[in-house]
Fold this sequence. Notes:
496 residues; 3 domains; alpha+beta; elongated; Arc Repressor Mutant, subunit A; single chain; binds zinc ion
Amino acid sequence: MSPLRPDGDDWIFEASGTRWVPVIGLEVHAQLATRTKFLCPCAYEAGAQPNTQVCPVCTGQPGALPQLNAEAIKLAVRAALALGCDVAPRSKFDRKNYFYCDIPKNYQITQYDQPYCTGGGIRLASGRFVRLNRIHLEEDAGKAIHDRGDVTLVDLNRAGVPLIESVTEADLQTPEDAAAYLTALREILIYTGASSADMEKGEFRCDVNISVHPEGEEWRTKVEIKNLNSFSNVQAAIRYEVPRQILAWESPDPADHPVQETRLYDVAAGVTRSMRKKEGEADYRYFPDPDLPPILVPAAFIERQRSLLPELPAARRERYQRDLGLSEYDAGVLTLQRAVADFFEATARLSGQPKEACNWITNELLRALSGDEIEATCIDELRLKPFDLSELLGLLAAGKVGGGAARQIFSLMLTSGRAAGEILVDLGLEQIDDEEQLSEWCREALAGRASVAAEVRAGNLKAIGALMGPVMAASGGKANPTRVRELLLRLIHDAD
Ligand SMILES: [Zn+2]
């Protein structure tokens, strides 16, 4: 454990009288949600049998020619527009040359000096704006599997899957900033449909660049930590790496100082370890790919993609608070996943009751999804649809059903997929509104409780609770409580 502690929220570290400032940038590889690969017609689905989703192009056979997937360009442009980037009217592909078993061509198709977009960025909830330097298109490599004794296995299914790599400026300073940025980026990619960004499937992978320098001085050597596959690992790696670098700079022996290198975060040990000295760009011998034409993106294409952009989560949160009167917290919960926000909006529209729709979704529905009473684990798998929930809200608003019965009906709707009205009739859960029946129960409750009636008459309206209880019990919980209350008050005052 490092003896260094950051000073306040800005994450400035005080060591031997020097104030050290961390500088952090993030690179994210996100897999585009195309049906087929980037440069060949192979379908790709994670988890398939190894080497079953391959062809001469993605296995790098001599003479095989690539063919660009137009869908990948559409999705990439949509992501760029959602992030406020400038899409280049013309960009090109380059070969990045290196030798490794997961890349049989011995080069990766990527974009070197002409990325398809530049600029843009994300404003975090803290107010900090994180600028994007660029986003470029590239193909993924296959997977080398090293944990099978003394052999290495190679699975080329993932080779040639389209990625966008987004690179921020070094605008971040704390682990919290990094997590907030990654959350927002992931949310935008999912909302636009550009990527499913499932981290467990490796569809959203982060590299972190970190350096530290004494306040007011020039920036120093940066170190890259590669392949972080969860937000908590990104934060843990930063928490470890920043103090490590400061202590290394504090050493009087220059041999101890940080060097430009690539490190890996060892989750079990909670430390970063040197993987290799960082290659210089020259080592990759980039050159334009002769087999692929440049990408030309006409203005009309950009406008078409812009018109397909959905309302983004930050805008939705603001609208829910402003127009629908929801709290900041509720708006945040609803917009965490696009499918949940869409479900909420449909329910609110159909029922005309946004607040009630929000309560039922954030409380009952999300709780049911996280529990194990139903099979569905995400809202799309539910048999209950927005129309069904809006019907239940309608029954509640019309006083046909009470809160307890509504919850009972709701859980049956979730498991059976049946309509609220149907369950209501079947189980005989209709709220009882019949005045004669209700009056009879009220008179029974009043009999022998003269002192309670006197208290109510004297102005203590809370005392009426002692009368409501017996009525609700007599009705098996089905009496309409609003009507019961009215009737009790009338009976008490009529007796005056
Ligand atoms: Zn292929």
